[in-house]
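Trying the structure run again after the queue cleared.
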Amino acid sequence: MTDREKLLKISNLTLNGVIGQMDEEQMGQYLEILQGFTGSFPKQEEKLKAELSAGDNTGCGQSLHALQETLGSIHADVLAQECGRLADGLADTPHEKNVAYITNLLAAVSALSIDVQMALHKNEKDAEQAAKPKNTPEVKAGSILAVDDVALFLSTLRSYLKGTPCKLTCVTSGWDALRFIRHHTPDLFLLDIDMPDMDGYELARKIRESGQKAPIIFLTGNAAINYVMKAIEVGAADFIVKPLKKDQLFEKISKYVNLEKPSTEDGED
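Done. Tokens:
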């Protein structure tokens, strides 16, 4: 799969009718702009969060417009428009709502940044092997092992997946996860990166050393390049960005296990 094809699959990039018209030089320039976006976004995010925490509407507005320009340059048109809308409405919106809206926006931009990095750096063969077979009757509901030291996050995850045919097991530490896989073989792993005692990177290595081959989706709120590249190195198939959004969760997980409710009694949990 070419870079063009991989980038066209990223939902928050509006590239239909655009990328196909780029010659090789223009494509190279666009890829450089994308790399610049993934490199600069963490600092933009940090600055905007600090201004938001301080209640600095003027600073927030300027930062949102700067982020809008950045997103426009990579054809992330919907997110760019949302930046402009939030910037223009800061003064007329209660602070609590501004915090919620901007937090959700930053999570969406983080997800975009990670998707771009995955498209540009993830080994294509690894991605093909991790994805479930398409349109084959053998694909079952699947079992998922989720590991996160925050119990509230796991409760939210469980509520979102309620009613789907997949079997979800939740544990709150890497050591509990390793004990679980001594006797079980999940079809998918969801691993938080930032955990005490054993972080997600180390846990992923130990999972692979144990012989488990199921895809690993990392849970994170950090889109920094070194963070993402380290996850790719230890076998990341994909990422889900916190705070958790149900549509993003379903989009990511459904690549690897079946989340559709069974149409017959055969699919009973």
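The two ends are 37 Å apart (CA to CA). Worth checking whether this holds up in the mutant runs.
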